Structures are given as C-alpha cells and as structure tokens.
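Batch job 17 of 40 flagged for manual review because the log was empty.
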Amino acid sequence: LFLEFHGNEAGLAQDVEFTKEIVADHGCESIDFETDQGARNRLWDARHNLAYAYIHGNKGKKMMVTDVCVPISELSGAIRDARQRLDTLGLTGGILGHVGDGNYHVLLMIDMEDPEEVEKAAQFNEEIVEYALERRGTCTGEHGVGVGKQKYQEMEHGGSLRVMERIKEALDPKGIFNPNKLIKQKEAGQ
C-alpha cells in the first residue's frame, strides 16, 4: 500500500505517527516512509511497473485491465469481493489503484486462446461492475467508458442517458466529436 502525504514538516510528522497507529491496529507488520525525493520516485516507479511484472510473469497471456469506482466507505469490501471472485474463478490477477477516491483496477492475465478463460474474465468484469453499481459507485473511475464500459451506461444512468444522448446530438449533430464513444451515435436516417 503506497500512501502519499503533503504538508509542512510538523504536519507530516503527525500524519506519519497517526498512520503508524492505524495500521498497527490492523496487523501491519512494517511501514516505511521516504522523504527523499529520489527514494520516493523509486517507490512510485515500482508501483508503475507492476503491470510489466504481471506481463513478464505470465508468458503467453495478455493483460486485460478493468476498473470500477465505489464510495470510499465501500472500498475495502469491494477489494475483498474482487479478490474472492478472482480466486473463485481461478483467474490470475492483481488489484491495484489510486484508491483514495474509491477507484481500483484489476489486472487480469488471460490466455486469449482459451475460450473458458476469456469467458471467466468477462464474467469477472460484469460482476465487479454490478457490485460497484449496487453500492452507488460507477462502472469505471477512468478507463474504457467510451468503448469497454459503454454497455453499462444504461444500467448506471437510467433515463439520464437519454438526456445525455440528446445533448450530444444537439452539440454534435454530425457525430464528429469522439464518434461512438460513451454515447453510441445513431446511424444516419435513424
């Protein structure tokens, strides 16, 4: 778990001590803090290279990345649920994200030549989206709204989607702004 704190020296010292108390209450075995910018950059570099570790550790598989966003009060349950679903389905994957806003990603390593595994990955994605929406979250915190998460827009927005479609038509009648992203453009003559 990577945490980033900002503030003056006294405030940071307080935040660090408070964080140590919180994580100790939850069984954390160790916690490291870095104040040196170079050392902090190396830590973040490790976080950003996590996807490459999965790719190189799972030869012959392709990475599928999905994400959802839940209210922060629902985050721990959502992550536990996602991990349990991965294990139940027998999928290789890791959970990561910038969870301070309730957004988390799941990196799935899929054998694209195995139809059963591809179906399990699709099922997993459907299930975590439904979980998020049932808890007043969103089908995505950032990625894939325009294409991969387009099919969830009706489920998430209900009748409001019709209003969005009308606004899109009014502002972009020729469908040239991000064509067929987020809101599928109607075919000519429809």
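Reviewer: the log was empty due to a logging misconfiguration, but the result itself is present. The helical segments are 9-25, 37-48, 50-57, 75-89, 115-134, 153-157, 160-171. Unflagging and moving on to job 18.
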